[in-house]
Design brief:
Elements: E1 2-7, H1 18-36, E2 51-55, E3 63-66, E4 71-75, H2 76-85, H3 89-106, H4 116-124, E5 146-154, E6 160-163, E7 179-188
Parallel strand pairs: 2-4
Antiparallel strand pairs: 1-7, 3-4, 5-6, 5-7
Helix pairs in contact: 1-3, 3-4
Bound molecules: zinc ion (ZN) (2 copies).
Length: about 190
Amino acid sequence: MEVLKDLPLDFSRGCSTKKEKEIANQILAELVEEAYGLDEFYLIGGLTKPSISLNNRITTTQGRFYPSRNSIEISGYLLKACMLINDFDAIRGTLRHELAHWYLFSFKQDYNDGQRDFEELLIKIDAPSSGATNKKLRLSRETPFLGYMFEVSCDKCDFKDYSTTRCGKYRHKNCGGHLIDNKMVLVKEDWKN
Ligand SMILES: [Zn+2]
Ligand SMILES: [Zn+2]
């Protein structure tokens, strides 16, 4: 795990201001156009394209496809993280992954994570497999973690760790000292297979 940026504890992790939303939606629109131009999606002409929007409440996954609504939601946290490092590979991969669900669903093919048609399409469009998919069924690379964590330390011993939640209310199990949230950090895990 690599720490890319130190952030204040109260840093706003989503795309929340008007200006941020504007920039984020513009980036998303460009990536959508780029994805629709992929050779593998050459049959999309006859399909009803999904509505694609940012959602700041998606924090545990990076994106979602809703077949019944023909819509895709992308995590506002993830796009904000990409904006902080000016590297949009993670959001590009997530978007293509969700579009692969949509595309195969539209043609009534196997569109679920782990199914052969789906995993094969992911490789062709250079999109990652879901980290939740059984490793034996995954063909593409795993979705790397890019997101926010809290740096936590103990006021009594030299314990230091990273946590997905704030720990400031708790005591260190080993020594009984108070845990302190030092700062928020943006972290990244490397590509894995
Ligand atoms: Zn998926
Ligand atoms: Zn301690």
